[in-house]
Amino acid sequence: MIDVAAVKRDFPILSQRVRANRELIYLDSAATSQKPESVINAVSRFYQNTNAAIHRGAHALAEAATVEFESAREKIAHFIGAQSHEICFTKNATESINAVTYMFLNETIKAQRGIQVENPHFALQAGDEIVLTQMEHHANLVPWQELALKTGAELRFIPLNTEGRLDLSDLESIINNKTRVVSFVHQSNFLGTINPVNSIINRAKQVGALTLLDACQSVPHLTMNVKSIDVDFAVFSGHKMLGPLGVGVLYLKDPNSAPVFLTGGSMIEKVTLEKSTYAQAPQRFEAGTQAAAEVIGLAAAVDYLEQIGMEVIHRHELALTKLALEGLMQIPQVNIIGPTDLQERGGIISFTLADLHPHDVGQVLDEQGIAVRVGHHCAWPICTYFNVPATTRASFYLYNDEHDVEMLVSGVTRTLDYFGVS
Amino acid sequence: MIDVAAVKRDFPILSQRVRANRELIYLDSAATSQKPESVINAVSRFYQNTNAAIHRGAHALAEAATVEFESAREKIAHFIGAQSHEICFTKNATESINAVTYMFLNETIKAQRGIQVENPHFALQAGDEIVLTQMEHHANLVPWQELALKTGAELRFIPLNTEGRLDLSDLESIINNKTRVVSFVHQSNFLGTINPVNSIINRAKQVGALTLLDACQSVPHLTMNVKSIDVDFAVFSGHKMLGPLGVGVLYLKDPNSAPVFLTGGSMIEKVTLEKSTYAQAPQRFEAGTQAAAEVIGLAAAVDYLEQIGMEVIHRHELALTKLALEGLMQIPQVNIIGPTDLQERGGIISFTLADLHPHDVGQVLDEQGIAVRVGHHCAWPICTYFNVPATTRASFYLYNDEHDVEMLVSGVTRTLDYFGVS
Amino acid sequence: MSIDNLYQEIILEHYRHPQGKGISLENGVEVHHVNPSCGDEITLRAAIMDEKVGVSYDNTGCSISQASASMMWELVHGKPATEVLALEAEFLALMQSKGQGTDEDESLSDAIAFVGVSQFPARVKCALLPWMALKDALLQNLRSNNE
Amino acid sequence: MSIDNLYQEIILEHYRHPQGKGISLENGVEVHHVNPSCGDEITLRAAIMDEKVGVSYDNTGCSISQASASMMWELVHGKPATEVLALEAEFLALMQSKGQGTDEDESLSDAIAFVGVSQFPARVKCALLPWMALKDALLQNLRSNNE
Ligand SMILES: Cc1ncc(COP(=O)(O)O)c(C=O)c1O
Ligand SMILES: Cc1ncc(COP(=O)(O)O)c(C=O)c1O
Predict the structure, then answer these.
(1) B4-30+310-419: what fold?
(2) Quick one: CA dihedral C7, C9, C10, C16, positive or negative?
(3) Chain segment B107-133, per-residue pLDDT in tens
(4) Does the beta-carbon distance from D3 to B390 stay under 8 Å?
(5) CB–CB of B389/D40 below 8 Å?
(6) Structural domain boundaries enclosing D50
(7) Whole-angstrom Cα distance, residue A410 to residue A365?
(8) pLDDT of residue C1 exceeding 70
(9) A60 has a pLDDT exceeding 70
(10) Ligand 2 center to residue A215 CA distance, Å?
(11) What is the pLDDT of residue D126?
(12) Cβ A195 under 6 angstroms from ligand 2
């Protein structure tokens, strides 16, 4: 059980009033989460006491900053069951995915030019296949489209069904001997669906394909262990799990055999004008001055989450989701896009309301202090599949409670009234 | 004139005591600058009052966050004489440079595969030349080495002379009709040299080459206007100019004709499973959730700098540099690596001390509370040229004063004593 | 800044009963514009015949973008091209006025109601979408006439 | 945590008068290790003859890395390979002890002086550089002997 009242007090923004002095009901955590005081303070304190360039100086501040940064790395790695050197920091999950697609591009080009490659697994050939799903966030779709275009590899998709789940019936043919990499989302940020990670990864392993898990909506909300799912890459963003903006994570199962992506200072071993050699992981993937304050803030966020417990958080969100689904489904004009039961889903609910445009729905909810997200939620192909221009999306986190859900449900009814829809 | 005592009070970290209760003398601003309270507070306040996903929501917080973010962009753009849509945010200058090198790579590959390119200027051919200088930071060297390797283009270098300046005598042959891009540093982070930007850019224009200016050590320290130097790209990092970590800038003269680099959410126009089209600048270059708090913090840093005035800051640093050069050069065991006069230089001084290793020099200075940087300063080829394994580097900023310089000079003498060198 | 400023009666009226919707024009330049953040789309065809502008459009989107297209159509269809471009500039100024209106905004007749939208930064793009499409189509018309 | 803990007399002594410096060994595996953050470098050649380790090295770098190489040479040259690997493990443990030392550190004889370095995280890598090079070279020796 979460003492939500106590939790809310830890988040300064949640006591704010918005629009015409409304209580803020924040139901947009799938876009970005709010930050507890402890995270905000961890960032400020770093600048007030420790700020210096890490891994680069022998002076006292640089030493202290490096130690803080590396213990933050250890804590964050541990949170997903990884070892320190297996995670590297990026600016967001989008960069993490691009890093992997560019690793493939770089090795492919080197192989084509007859340059020695670091790892032949990453060198693609025309006709090789990349498997995604039909429910990917643009971050896990567009970079692969670019890669396919530049390498001649082909994209294949595990399709959706009308319930908003993956249809695995053709999995054996979609993931086949031509498949080189399978990249898919753990929990959909649009539908709330939690995908069957093991079935997909097992099939990928059968054909020797590398796997990437987009864990943006799972690491913040449930217990996740990269070792037990045995994935090759996993990505997530700090800002969706109570951490600061500007820090993402890329987990690599075998970091020292992965090609480099961004190059420059701090990731090198030795440099001459003509040629450079590169450091071991994780430095190998961290070119330039790192966002140390943000990484340290993210470690404070992990502390906060662990103190409450990821199991507890997941159960709490499911309870709210149950309540919200029940409430919304009693309104005849509501159409839920995504699973309507609690099996394998998390606390994200997308819906349409009569033929009102979600932008208008969101506006009237906002007038009542209720912050939801409207649009295609960076997963346009899902809209296309369900033939809706956009949806309204509510998403829950540890600081939401039953009252927030009730406000949402009554807010939706009031929206129908506002536009005179009956 | 800067009232340094007042300035120091604005920077919480500078009142700290380090090691055996020593006053902190921070002379490592070329690595990263310290942050005034106003910047630290701008970041915290964003999380306390406004935090939400920008450009993505219709709710009150998202609206406010977007407005704050875009006015921060406007202020930062204006600071370098650019228009808003001509700058995009990255995580650091290193990413900014990689963005440009990957734009070249992407267009080169597309051209090779017969795919329509966005801008043929970016498509390289084997034998095309890329011109850098011998004094580049690894961030402006290694990405170009990678690009050359993958495209068959060749690197050429404007050489150093023993004074630590560029030798332009062969400029006409180094930058020639085969040159496609010229990328160089404005102020060297190792030597303190300020390079003749106009001569180099003019020559590049004569041959139709694109130009990139690494302004990491100039934007924080002097008045710089991208329009008057008429450069195609400029890069710098927020953390070196009083701003937060985790935000860099890429200026593009002609942003809408530049190919994309990172792809994903928020940078698209329309997405289907098979194909996507991309938004106009600056969104086009800002994939994924942006570091809004850091960008807003950087705008607060610009406010702070503008309030004092960039001319004033530059003159202040030169006065300190004069004092430091005079003081250090009176110690016979000191060997300055870089210009020893004040012509075309900034407040960065590298030196060696007898045959003591800089790591040892830095350690003894640190014991006295003096934070300097030791090593190759991410510009290893300069060490190679001057045949030193590393140097000790002191760098000044608006919060340093004569007392700091005196401490440095006496600290160096004490270091000689400690190791019994006479 | 109540949403009643946003959803003024005349806007909701146009939203419920859009004018000129449906691609009826046979010739002209066709453009397709999208608001990537919310997915609003408009296909617009415009031609200039005897100096007069002919417009037809089809669209999906929120009440604001639909009402804006409808009022725009009423306002510009059959007007001289120069006048239409001036109206477009005026409407843009209105949308940037942050609720203040402009000196010349009477020329926009009913579309003045959109002054309320200009107080909601996230919705300004919705209102501008049809106008941006129109401007694009007109400029393409003028360019091809000059060739 | 005064730097006098770091620069103990015996360390400065080895720095001023390094033992075994210069590549004298004719055969063996040669490795080159670098500390990228400060530019310290060591070239080390090691061979195993009659179960005994032969080492020679050349290096540039700070007092800590030079003294460490010198003391390492004194400690391991001519010792059985298994003992040398155990010493390497012991030295690594000492460097990770944050100034606490370890239970078995007498085996390191003079090199115990490096316990002071373990309080300065930024210098730990300097002290470890020669040992990492040695370990690398020895493991390569052992691997090629097994082939
Ligand atoms: C001249 C120069 N270029 C590039 C960089 C790289 O900046 P960053 O580490 O912030 O990416 C630096 C600073 O380290 C620099 O001084
Ligand atoms: C499932 C999923 N993948 C990827 C992303 C991209 O994350 P970011 O914008 O932090 O890079 C998001 C969030 O927007 C997401 O929900």
Answers:
(1) Aspartate Aminotransferase, domain 1 (3.90.1150)
(2) positive
(3) 999 999 999 888 899 999 999 999 999
(4) no
(5) yes
(6) 3-146
(7) 10
(8) no
(9) yes
(10) 9
(11) 93
(12) no
